[in-house]
Amino acid sequence: MRFRVLGGLQACAAAGEPVRLGAAKHRVLLAILLLEANKPVHTGRIMAALWPDRPPRSAAAVLRTYVSALRHSLGLATTGGRPALVSERGGYRLRVEPQEVDLLVFADLCRRGRAARAAAESVAAERLLRAALDLWRGEPLHDVPLDGEWLARLDELTELRLAAVEDWAEAALATGRQHDVATELRATVTAHPLRERLCEHWMLALYRAGRQADALAAYQRLRAEMVAELGVEPGPALARLQRRILDADPALRPPTGRTLPVVPRQLPLDVAEFTGRRKETDRLTRVLSGATGTVAVVVIEGPGGIGKSALAVHVGHRLADRFPDGQLYVDLQGAGPAPLTPMAVFGPVLRALGMSGDEIPDGVAEASAAFRALTADARLLVVLDNAAGAAQVRPLLPAGAGCAVLVTSRGVLGTLAGATHLRLDVLAPQESLALLGKLVGAERVSAEPAGVRNLADLCGHLPLALRIAAARLAARPSWPASALAARLGDATRRLDELQYADLGVRASFQVSYQSLVDSVDTAMYPLLSVLDGPDVSLPVAARLLDRDERRAEAVLERLVDAQLLETPAPHRYRLHDLLRLFARELAEERYTPAERAAATGRAVDLYTETAWGTFRLLRPGDTRERMRAGRGFASAHAALTWLEAERANLVAAVGQADELSISLAQALFGFLQVHSHWHDLIAVNRTALTVACRLTDLAAQAQACCDLAVAYDAQGRYEHAIRHLTEGLRIFRVLADRRGQGACLNGLGVVYDSQQRYPEAMACLEESLAVRAEMGDRRGQALSLNNLGVVHKRMARLDEALRCYERALDLAGVIGDHRLEAGLLTNVGEIHERQGRDVDALSCHERSMRLFHRLGDRQGQALNLGNRSRLYQRRGDYRRARVCLEECLAIQRAVGDRRGQAECLQQLGSLLHQLGDHTEARARWRDALTIFAELRLPTDELRVLLG
User: Fold this and answer.
1) Contacts of 293 (CB under 8 A, 6+ apart)
2) How much is the pTM?
3) Longest CA span, the chain
4) Which of 185, 238, 421, 555 could bond to 234 as cystine, CB 3.0-4.6 Å?
5) What is the CATH number of domain 176-257?
């Protein structure tokens, strides 16, 4: 988290996105905590800021809710990490690292800048103070209503900024930057006409810039202001400076600022359509401008076509005025077959710096020494584009602390000591659209936004691909973007389409691939593309490549270093969309269809084995016929962690698994249900049903129907659920499969209960219980008993419901199913609540919530929160009741449970109505009414409430 107070109040997440700060008083609270960052602020001072006139009687309680809201919205609740908002000594303290608040960064940069100035290091001082001033975005906290002592504090901040401006001007004048000072101080002097030191620096800058008359006029204006406002003359320092300017004192002449005999200006033209990369540009600017005592070296790394060179040149132009001794640019040709040697670079570089040909040494060491000697006192920017490796770059580094080096490379130059590394990723979607707008015209983008978005997606947001697509569109002004997008939509032709003149995505990738031919088993690379999932773990990659994990990892890491593969986390790897197409082309050239299918089968088989290993932990006692031996996990939490990390890959694998798709889909049922991934559950079981029908596997067809119905019921699509359960029941009866019949009857009972068809629900569930008892299926009996208890509860038969739950709890304990146990405890707690046994009810809810959290069961957590809210309302604790309902609603929306949302909205509306917030209550009831009507459920009660 990053906080900004030097301008409007802002909080930004780690990725840079701004965080919504909420109400005005939340902003006041955050502002004063930031102004006193890392110091305790007494509640009295806080309340005086929040309520300047008079705090309400409930101020302390309200303050606690504000603190809680800030902790929640900004992620400040943790006590072990930073930042954190903690209670301390009768107040609160916002604990942050210095780099997390712009005010603290500003203070540190000013301190370092003044220390550098005191040590006569004017170049470093100017850079540091400039970086400090660049943090300001306007008047501090101008959008926060502060009063009293805090207004005085803001005045202090303004004074600190003015002092920093004066210090910067002094350092900049010492380095010969009088033109910059003359320009930048004008507005500040106008706003603060009585600051003598500020005016002194401005007068000297004007004089050194050849504007003697303006310098003298500035003195006269200051004198007139001081006499009129204060009745005094300017101080002796300003008077002396005026006399020296009148006398044209030679000592006032500017320092030359030049250490090289020749000033090279070698940067290529800046890209006119350069777009986006704001965070990267700002970071490079800070690093290259803020170093002191050493050469700043930054390496921009990334795959071909990502825009490394464009960014380097753009930043080089942006920083050109900070390097008055010039800018060197060298294309090291490291992406090609013959990278330049350092000696081949030194000839033109040393000549560009004024050395004659016969003075240039013959050896690399001597030439490097000569280069360092020339640049020892220089302020020079060196851009080394397309580096092959660290060994190529090291001899080319200058020596002067006023120099900076910007390197680009397709490889990872991890052994380049002291370098800052910036890995460049693809453009953000909005940046891609902005780039296309600049290249083909904003009117074409605005005329067909959906087509342009699709085009950018198909280009993988890779700058090279976007430029090629834009060039093709520009050459075809009558084409809509959707026409080119349609051509790119054919994955087998996409790389052919991304070719224009001398630019080609395939050619760019081929260069990186060919550079590895002699150093790695490149035959493995194409096989990484055969799976449809977004990434692969190391064990899956090893199975895919048919290698042991150690050998596979060595190859994968080498591919990562070559930017042909990404590693988002240790032991995980992924291909960019366009690199995947490139690798698939290679796979089709190198491997037969049978070999590719065999590789896919090896990986899918590992997924299937491991998924069954998780199933046993998530659904102990389940008697599915397709249970297989699989990889073991230490706990259900470990199993769920693996499943969540691999979810997208597992869902994709079902589509590639052919006959294994049935087994894999069934193995995933427990996980997808526990984590409420209903769309995925539907997708994998539709695939399984299609394969089962093709294979005429009746048992698999019936099971897929049964599993599909669970997801449809959760989404409120009851007709679909009943249709699939009825078909599954029919097939299981044909097969004389009593276990399957019991499952389908249980499912029908649940759906009928959702539709409030209680007699039909009761009949199905009682028949299901009988079938499962006959089969000795203890887990199945527990499920049917639980659902019977729910129906009894809805019909106000509380004693019958409690007996069902308690019998089910006994069975759940025997089979060790903690998820089922958690759901049953929640239900038992609700019965205790209705019977007036609040202490027993709360105990049950707390036990069940611990289990639901451990299992990551979001639907269970939502059910628990709804029940706890009712309990809190009964006890008059309306604040906790509302918090529970808000959290419950957020979960129901996240998991897509429409009926759950409607019931929660109805409860929340009733609570708000009880608290007197009638407008908000009616809004919640209307939302609930809409969902109930959509699900074709009774709405009479809500219509009465709404009048």
Assistant:
1) 121, 124, 401
2) 0.60
3) 114
4) 238
5) 1.25.40.10
In CATH, which of 1.10.287.1080, 1.10.357.10, 3.30.70.3270, 1.25.40.10 is domain 703-812? 1.25.40.10
Beta strand 91-95 with 41-42 is antiparallel
Instruction: Point out which residues pair with 572 in neighbouring strands.
Output: 537, 569
CA distance 854 to 851: 5
Number of alpha carbons in the 13 Å side-chain half-sphere of residue 754: 26
Phi and psi of 132, rounded to 5°? -65, -45
Phi then psi for 371, rounded to 5 degrees?
Answer: -65, -45
Q: Tokens 């199993």 appear where?
A: 639
For residue 207, is pLDDT > 80? yes
For the domain 523-590, what is the CATH code? 1.10.10.10
**pLDDT for position 6:** 93
What does the pLDDT look like over 853-891, one tens digit per residue? 887 788 888 888 988 898 888 888 889 999 999 999 998
The helix or strand, by DSSP H or E, that contains position 382, with its residue range, turns out to be strand 381-387
Report the pLDDT value the prediction gives residue 625, as an integer from 0 to 100.
44
415, two tokens: 């052994």
Report whether the peptide linkage leading into residue 255 is cis, meaning its omega lies within 30 degrees of zero.
no
* Domain extent listing, the chain: 1-173, 176-257, 278-423, 429-501, 523-590, 592-695, 703-812, 817-884, 897-947
Strand order in the sheet with 41-42: 41-42, 91-95, 84-88
550-582 pLDDT, tens digit per residue, is 999 998 988 888 888 888 889 999 998 899 999
Classify domain 278-423 by CATH number: 3.40.50.300
Q: What is the 3-state secondary structure (H, E, C) of 603-625?
A: HHHHHHHHHHHHHHHHCCCCCCC
Provide the β-strand partners of residue 503: 500
- Decide if 1-173 and 523-590 have a common fold: yes
Helices (H), 134-248: 149-174, 178-191, 196-208, 212-230, 236-246
Q: What are the structure tokens assigned to 464, written together? A: 């090279």
Tokens of 544: 């895919």
Tokens of residue 19, six digits: 């965080």
pLDDT digits (tens, 9 = 90+) for 705-740: 999 999 999 888 999 999 999 999 999 999 999 999
